């Protein structure tokens, strides 16, 4: 009797799915099965100290395409869609960073991607998403001219602190889907509310990581690193800045980081150089110079000469009308400029030649295991030659052990930072002399 009741219950669920309108089903939590290889891939990334991004490529007009193409044409389109995205994603990202590409959502594809860096990687994800979409749309149109998919994209990072990896994956997927669709009364609105509250109430905290002079071992400067409200979903800089970017609040958030940095300099009496991260999209904003001047006017005891603005080179500066003009004005005000992540992005040399930075920061991807890799050491030597030609100081990022540090000393790198020297901590009185 119990077995018969269970069978009827299963059949009833099937009929409910058949008769419920598709637009209603989409608002239910996704009931996909997380396969073992994905869970293992996510866990392995976490164990290696990496983050995992869930990126959704949603097709807004999938139902219309199904009706337009017919059953055979639609099946052909879905097969081509998966193949095209797989090829382009592997070409753009590289198979080592891909955990999986899967059609969890009935309206598109979901990419699980390993991430190694802090908040500035959000820019890279954003750029790669656009490039993947642009190339995929072009190839799909060449192969099937009648198929005109309209894509929506969104991404979210899987929470490491979650009690269950499966639950964390499902939650991140729902949030990424909500970001893509920007649905009313969904988690997009909750995220928008959360980041709006953080911006309006300036609910961020700053940590400082020392930048060490390799010749003397002394602390020469501090890089400010941002955290969201402690214990919240947006505590991680990856989550915080990804949501801020997708909700058009990145500019406001980065200005608050600058304002809070000035406050910390005042509170601690720090006289050493301070490095602050900015994206090119913020630096190129037509309000940026005006807003920076206002904040400096409120803190007249702080000279711009103490401040270095780090520009991530993972965002292209091309086509940014105000960017180079703002850079000239910032230099006239006394700010120094650094290019962050050199060696990791696609436009390092172009960015260096355009900006002529005071400081070049070499990305962790070049430094990692440099003591075991002669090609990486050759890359370092090449970047040092470029820096000397430009007249830039060099900072090597992400040093984690003595072997890596010894290669930098041997090559006479100016400055270094990383866990080998110190982990980020709050900037306090007396700390800057340690």
From TrEMBL:
Matches recorded under InterPro entries: Cyclic-di-GMP_PDE-like, EAL_dom, EAL_sf
Gene Ontology terms, MF aspect: cyclic-guanylate-specific phosphodiesterase activity
Segments traversing the membrane: none
Pfam families recorded: EAL
Residues annotated as domain EAL: 188-434
PANTHER family for this protein: CYCLIC DI-GMP PHOSPHODIESTERASE PDEF, SIGNALING PROTEIN
Protein name, UniProt field: EAL domain-containing protein
Protein's organism: Cytobacillus dafuensis (Bacillus dafuensis)
